[in-house]
């Protein structure tokens, strides 16, 4: 059985804890590897070594650091297919979706090549008589990233790119469920010229998370995962004086107005709701058609599209629409929530409970589900399902529809489909949600903007990637300088009082 260990000081580091976690092939349900889980002592060792390596890396000029990122981009493109295959085999994503996962992370690394510009400070000459003032953006030191299973390439790249480009060292704790790609990326960074010890990949479970939060050397923590854990990490990090940006769950609504192109809206809902088996924090999981006529016409279009979805392993070809969910426990939780929707009175229009893929009976596949006539009190509406389940809640008016999205405790992403500019502008202005799509179903910002949700979807003041990331991973130092002016003759041997 293959064993997966850690990456410390530029090479594989064999763990000594004797504790292991199973890494599954989600398509077959078989254990394909054993992952070594770090001890607190091993994590602390990685931090101590990173702190030593960071001093020289932080003193390296930003342009030289950017050149490492430039070479990293080339190497990721070179190994794109190899990375995607490893990602698909552990997560279960289709091959095109795995490449998309890597590509959206790669775009952030491309943005980080511009770090010298982003790290520039401000300067004021002659702030007073002979006095200049200027600010410097300096690295925090050692920072940590705790990343989720659903984007095992993208989110680690979102974390490591800005952190390293800003001159920090990073401790990365990826998900135990699909750890191989983060380790492969660490190897590529070393090949790109990153000094040993500047990026340490330490695999672990809650014990490692708590060790990160308790370690006094670590100055900041970035997290993506469920809301309860995001809130836990945020509060515990704050209690120990660390910066934290923690992103949690979501329940993303898409409002469909009566004037919308319903074929376009239906296509968007199918892709946004069922892509990656619904295991996306930006997936659309709630459709909100305005008016019964709109709802009936939308359901009529959705059903045949959903019934045609091809579910299968990533090895079945690029025409597979989505693959298995990541674990057996995830599958069981999805089906439990589906049953709760039935029990609480929702209408199950497309029933995927009996889905079975010949030859993959032990895999973690879940058929597509579509609910209609969902109400706000139902579990399938209140909770994040994280699976291929789309709920339809009918609204009588635009005001009722926007109110549903605004009243929900999550505020990650939302979208509206309409042909009316006034409605679109009103929606974008009023909605209390962090990322908004207008005729765009999954409004994930490009790398030079920032990604972040509101309400219980996000904890912390600064978002991921874009300019916010460089603000998060640096601190500002302001210098006030005064130099004697004029030409002096001879030496002076006394201190002059300041005027």
From TrEMBL:
CDD domains named in the record: ALDH_F6_MMSDH
GO biological process annotation, one example: thymine catabolic process
PROSITE patterns linked: ALDEHYDE_DEHYDR_CYS
UniProt keyword Oxidoreductase present: yes
Pfam families associated with the record: Aldedh
Keyword Oxidoreductase set for record: yes
Gene Ontology molecular function terms on file: methylmalonate-semialdehyde dehydrogenase (acylating, NAD) activity
EC primary class: oxidoreductase
Stretches assigned to coiled coil: none
Annotated Aldehyde dehydrogenase domain residues: 19-479
Enzyme Commission (EC) number: 1.2.1.27
Superkingdom of origin: Bacteria
Keywords, sorted A to Z: NAD, Oxidoreductase
PANTHER family reported for this sequence: MALONATE-SEMIALDEHYDE DEHYDROGENASE
Protein name, as recorded: methylmalonate-semialdehyde dehydrogenase (CoA acylating)
Source organism (scientific name): Paracoccus sediminis
Lineage summary: Bacteria, Pseudomonadati, Pseudomonadota, Alphaproteobacteria, Rhodobacterales
């Amino acid at each position: 059985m293959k064993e997966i260990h850690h990456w410390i000081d530029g090479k594989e580091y064999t763990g000594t804890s004797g504790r292991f976690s199973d890494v599954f092939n989600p398509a077959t349900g078989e254990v394909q590897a054993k992952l070594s889980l770090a001890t607190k002592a091993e994590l602390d060792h990685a931090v101590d070594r990173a702190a030593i390596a960071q001093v020289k890396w932080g003193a390296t000029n930003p342009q030289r650091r950017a050149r490492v990122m430039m070479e990293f981009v080339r190497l990721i493109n070179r190994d794109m297919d190899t990375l995607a295959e490893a990602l698909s085999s552990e997560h279960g994503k289709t091959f095109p979706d795995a490449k998309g996962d890597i590509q959206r992370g790669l775009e952030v690394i491309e943005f980080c090549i511009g770090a010298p510009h982003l790290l520039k400070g401000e300067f004021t000459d002659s702030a007073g008589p002979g006095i200049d003032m200027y600010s410097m953006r300096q690295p925090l030191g050692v920072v940590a990233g705790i990343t989720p299973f659903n984007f095992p390439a993208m989110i680690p790249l979102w974390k490591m790119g800005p952190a390293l480009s800003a001159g920090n060292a990073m401790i990365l704790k990826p998900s135990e469920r699909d750890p191989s790609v983060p380790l492969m990326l660490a190897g590529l960074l070393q090949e790109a010229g990153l000094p040993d010890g500047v990026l340490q990949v330490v695999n672990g479970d809650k014990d490692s998370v708590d060790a990160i939060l308790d370690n006094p050397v670590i100055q900041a923590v970035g997290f993506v995962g469920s809301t309860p854990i995001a809130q836990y990490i945020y509060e515990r990090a704050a209690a120990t004086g660390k910066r934290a940006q923690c992103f949690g769950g979501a329940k993303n609504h898409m409002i469909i107005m009566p004037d919308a192109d319903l074929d376009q809206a239906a296509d968007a809902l199918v892709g946004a709701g069922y892509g990656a088996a619904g295991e996306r924090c930006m997936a659309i999981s709630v459709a909100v058609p305005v008016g019964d006529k709109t709802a009936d016409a939308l359901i009529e279009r959705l059903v045949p599209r959903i019934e045609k979805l091809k579910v299968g392993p990533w090895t079945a070809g690029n025409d597979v629409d989505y693959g298995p969910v990541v674990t057996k426990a995830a599958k069981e939780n999805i089906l439990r929530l589906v049953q709760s929707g039935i029990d609480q009175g929702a209408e199950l229009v497309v029933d995927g409970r009996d889905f079975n893929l010949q030859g993959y009976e032990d895999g973690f596949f879940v058929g597509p589900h579509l609910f209609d006539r969902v109400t706000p009190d139902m579990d399938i509406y209140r909770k994040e399902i994280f699976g291929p389940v789309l709920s339809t809640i009918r609204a009588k008016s635009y005001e009722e529809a926007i109110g549903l999205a605004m009243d929900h405790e999550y505020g990650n992403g939302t979208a509206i489909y309409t042909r009316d500019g006034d409605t679109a502008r009103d929606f974008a202005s009023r909605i209390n949600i962090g990322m908004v799509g207008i005729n765009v179903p999954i409004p994930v910002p490009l790398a030079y903007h920032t990604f972040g949700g509101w309400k219980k979807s996000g904890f912390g003041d600064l978002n991921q990637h874009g300019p916010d990331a460089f603000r998060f991973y640096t601190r500002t130092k302001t210098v006030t300088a005064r130099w004697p002016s004029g030409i002096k003759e001879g030496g002076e041997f006394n201190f002059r009082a300041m005027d």
